[in-house]
């Protein structure tokens, strides 16, 4: 049962059971296998996995994940984006930021489901949120000089010491998910353990959402009815053998890194 009142007040909920142990093992293996083929300088651009990889498209449509999302945004759901978030031991981090201000959505509503495929703790760099900041509007961001930032756009902004002291870590067990509002201020520290922190994020929006700019690709209706009149182009689902899908994913990520494909997700 999702505590919608808590989500509306705080901007997040965490610890929602979603995947079985067998599902965790299968999706974790698939994600780590993907990372084993992708150069490290491309890791931050591992976005829209669901567009090229069948296993990611399937996970994005997992009924227990969609049930949790539907409790917050309704029965008609678009998959807006997906992004891999494996954090290996070392200084890699995600600076404090918001998501929605970069996405040009109308109306401004999106919820991220962060899917844990390993233990996710403060020690290995779990996501931390500043409760209630989703109700405080957009903050001005600036380019980050941190070479260890895992954000694809390298943006962040300052937060006060008092805000940092009030931050809440969204610790998760394997198979659990957290949900956070697209306007909440969030970030994560480095992985100070030896084992990788393994997860993947899916961003969902109500199916009446459009963009103020030209429509992005790979926005999929994953439940219910299309309420936006076919605003987003329909792409074919991932197809082909595993190696062909892997090659397509690597090509896509590299084009994001090089700028050949313009992208506005962080």
Kindly report the spatial arrangement of strands forming the biggest sheet: 1-10-5-12-2-14
CATH topology title:
Jelly Rolls
Task: Say which CATH homologous superfamily is assigned.
Answer: q2cbj1_9rhob like domain
Question: What's the helical proportion of residues?
Answer: 10-25%
The tally of domains stands at 1
In DSSP terms (H or I, runs of 4 or more residues), the helix count works out at 6
Query: Looking at the structure, what is the overall shape?
Result: globular
| Largest β sheet strand count, sense and barrel closure | 6 strands, antiparallel
Series of H and E elements: HEHHHEEEEEEEHEEEEEEH
Average pLDDT confidence is 91
Radius of gyration: 17 Å
Q: Whole-Å distance between the termini?
A: 30 Å
Could you explain how this protein is built, in words?
With 266 residues, this protein is α+β, with helices and mostly antiparallel strands. The chain has a single domain, classed as Sandwich (Jelly Rolls). It is 24% helix and 22% strand. It has six helices and 14 strands. Strands 1-10-5-12-2-14 form a six-stranded antiparallel sheet. Strands 3-11-6-9 form a four-stranded antiparallel sheet, with no helix packed on it. The longest helix is centred in the N-terminal third of the chain and has 17 residues. It is globular and about 50 Å long. The mean pLDDT is 91.
């Amino acid at each position: 049962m999702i505590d919608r009142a808590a989500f509306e007040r705080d901007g997040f909920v965490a610890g929602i059971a979603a995947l079985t142990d067998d599902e965790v093992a299968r999706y974790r293996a698939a994600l780590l296998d993907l990372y084993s083929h992708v150069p490290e300088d491309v890791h931050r651009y591992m976005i829209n996995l669901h567009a090229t990889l069948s296993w990611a498209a399937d996970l994005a449509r997992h009924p227990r994940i969609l049930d949790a999302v539907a409790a917050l945004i309704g029965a008609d759901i678009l998959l807006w984006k997906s992004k891999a978030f494996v954090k290996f031991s070392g200084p890699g981090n995600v600076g404090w930021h918001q998501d929605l201000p970069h996405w040009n959505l109308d109306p401004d509503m999106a919820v991220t489901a962060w899917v844990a495929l390993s233990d996710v703790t403060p020690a290995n760099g779990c996501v931390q949120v500043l409760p209630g900041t989703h109700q405080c509007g957009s903050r001005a961001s600036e380019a980050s000089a941190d070479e260890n930032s895992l954000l694809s756009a390298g943006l962040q902004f300052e937060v006060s010491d008092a805000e940092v002291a009030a931050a809440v870590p969204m610790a998760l067990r394997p198979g659990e998910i957290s949900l956070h509002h697209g306007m909440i201020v969030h970030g994560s520290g480095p992985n100070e353990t030896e084992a990788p922190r393994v997860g993947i994020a899916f961003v969902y929006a109500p199916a009446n959402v459009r963009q103020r700019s030209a429509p992005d690709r790979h926005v999929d209706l994953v439940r219910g009815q299309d309420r936006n009149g076919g605003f987003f182009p329909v792409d074919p689902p991932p197809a082909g053998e595993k190696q062909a899908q892997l090659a397509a994913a690597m090509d896509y990520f590299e084009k994001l890194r090089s700028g050949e494909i313009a992208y506005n997700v962080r």
